[in-house]
Amino acid sequence: MQCTIRNMIYGFLGLYLLGSPVFAKSTATDALPDETNSLGMRLAYVAPGTFTMGSPKSEADRESQETAHAVELTKGFYVGKHEVTVGEFRKFVRAANYQTDAEKDGKGGYGVKESGGLDLGDKYNWKSPGFEQSDDHPVVLVSWNDAQAFCRWLSKMEKKSYRLPTEAEWEYACRAGTRTAYSFGDDPQDLVAHGNVGQNKDGFRYTAPVGRFKPNRYGLYDMHGNVWEWCSDWYDPKGYEGVRETDPTGPGSAEARVHRGAGWSSSATRARSASRIGRHPSTYRGSYLGFRIVLEQSNNPRIERAPDARLGKKFDYLVYDLGKGVELKLVKVSAKGQTFTIGSSAAEQDAVIQKYFHGKRPSTLDFEVEQRITLTDDFYIGRFEVSRGQFRRFVETTGYVTETETTDGGYGWNEDEKKFEGRDKKYSWKHYGLDSYTDASPVINITRKDAREFCKWLEGMGTGNGPALELRLPAEAEWEFACRAGRAGRFCFGDGDETLAVYANLADGTRKAMFPKGKGIEAKDGHVFAAPVGQFKPNAFGLYDMHGNVWEWCEDFYGTYTALPKVRNGLQTVSQGEQRPVMRGGAWYTGPEACRSAKRRLVGIGGRYGSGGFRVLCIIKEAGE
To answer: Residue ranges of the Sulfatase-modifying factor enzyme-like domain (predicted)?
Structure first.
């Protein structure tokens, strides 16, 4: 059984469309009304479908990079009816105190000099392109990075998922069901009524206010001319491979990002639906280059009830479709009104001292003085740790760059010297130095800030009038409640160290075979380093890898439990002294003591670790909260 959250809670149909006609939006029964957001931006719905991307060999002035091929878009989306305007961009700049790349680096971009010709200079930016612009004109001289920043701000403000269109989405929306050179036919002379381009008697020397020309069949204005528009894809000048694609997002990396549609200074051939070009995402800014936005459709996330094959019982899942066949599942944990003991009992601490520390009490046990607390909210928590593949979809969609990449790097394996090293710029979430680190592995070398940005991205996916979703890292109380799964003791199943190898990837005989001087239990789990998520037995709540594999970031900062309210939500915390984030769960290199349910690891605010990742938590807020 599965349904959207909106269906489940409010009992009416969401906006999930299947099997819609490909080229009949203007009359199709699946057409949806326009959306209008808080800035007054109007967006038109584009139904899913299949089309021919690129141009036929018979098309005049086509380029070899425009190889025609079939593309299927499996999800509908909303696209801006107009290019983003100066007025809309100004609201973002003021609200976010944002400076564009042209302003920050002081190098400006391509503006227009007094004589009317294009000019590269530091005096040109979105406020001063060299010609007069009103709030209704398209914003120009913005980089790809600037456009992405606008989308992130709007997503955060509205708790929806705004982004740049993929190149395939852009051409699909531009064509509006046509196969001709332009959305209105093949004759470039007709552009005078449909678009603002160079050498055209349209009445505009430079940019025109948005919406002054005829729209295409989907109700979209200025898809031909006025300003070039940034797309999310990297640009490959060799073009497409010519094979059928489903929901393509372009190459994995390149030097430039795609822009489409042509501008006021462009030739008519550049305004063709298939014409494409690429420029550097941060350093290229032009008075003929802007963007429009896409709003993802509100069928994400969905609720489903399904069995866990390992446990033979059903659980309620919150499922996010991240695109490209990648999903992220969270499991419902019924915690509202539940009372449990957080931390370790005196008996457990005595056992830990004798078993792991030869009778000497470590100071870290002072962090675990127990407290009985009652949680106030049910929640969904990641079935698995977030994988590298799931994090990759976040980066591909948003253009996000991690703190590890922008600072001094992370940690990784030096194969030549057979040791871990760092910090080093060559190591990040993408590269760890191990062939065993794949998209199925838990993502690592992630700071707490990076993990929280991933959560914000998920939070922005829900749109429409459904319930509010709070997406974040688990609070310590929520994490430990979920880990224990109703059990007291050192682990989610009891106290046995050797049994832990069934549930956890930790230091054991497999690791000692490679590192004879290392410590570990005798059992062998088959993994020297981090294992792909979900390889071990889940706890009673259907959660995997709560013990071992990688340490997991928590949302709150360290505080003694006794200073906290006994009835509270997960984030009611008291921080004493320096703010120190906490990680939980242990890792592949740690022994059983570090994998205990109560174990707390205090770390630095900007830490990133080759053994550290995270999982996501979601609270569905009831109406009025």
So the answer is: 46-294, 369-616
- In which band, very low, low, confident or very high, does the pLDDT at 462 lie, cut at 50, 70 and 90? low
Q: Rounded to an integer, what distance in angstroms lies between the CA atom of residue 281 and that of residue 258?
A: 9
In the chain the first and final C-alpha atoms are separated, in Å, by 28
CATH architecture of 309-620: Alpha-Beta Complex (3.90)
Residues 377-397, mean pLDDT to the nearest whole number: 96
The four Cα atoms 89, 92, 96, 100 give a dihedral, to 10 degrees, of: -10
Tell me: cis bond preceding 448? Omega within 30 of 0 counts: no
What is the rounded distance in angstroms from the CA atom of residue 387 to the CA atom of residue 320?
A: 13
Q: Measure the CA–CA gap between 522 and 499, rounded to whole angstroms.
A: 11
Which helix or strand (DSSP H or E) is residue 118 part of? strand 118-121
Site of tokens 């051409």: 171
Q: Is the pLDDT of residue 321 over 60?
A: yes
pLDDT digits (tens, 9 = 90+) for 330-378: 999 999 999 999 999 999 999 999 999 999 999 999 989 999 999 999 9
Of 12 and 289, the one with more pLDDT: 289
CA angle 12, 162, 210 (to 5 degrees): 110
Rounded CA separation 258/265 (Å): 18
Domain 56-70+80-291: assigned CATH number = 3.90.1580.10
How many CA atoms lie within 13 Å of 377's alpha carbon, on the beta-carbon side?
Answer: 22
Of 39, 359, 28, 60, whose CA–CA distance to 181 is shortest?
60
Cα gap 95→127, rounded to integer Å: 16
| Tokens encoding 449 | 């800030």
Stretch(es) of the chain classified as CATH 3.90.1580.10: 56-70+80-291, 309-620
Read off the pLDDT of residues 126-176 as tens digits, 9 standing for 90 and up. 999 999 999 999 999 999 999 999 999 999 888 788 999 999 999 999 999
pLDDT over threshold 70, residue 46 = yes
pTM: 0.65
List Cα–Cα distances, 230 to 78, 163, 195, in angstroms.
Answer: 16, 11, 17
Confidence grade of residue 217 (pLDDT, cut at 50, 70, 90)? very high
46: alpha, beta or left? (left if phi > 0; alpha if psi -120 to 50): beta
Q: Is 314 helix (H, G, I), strand (E, B) or coil?
A: strand
Secondary structure of residue 132 in the 3-state scheme:
coil
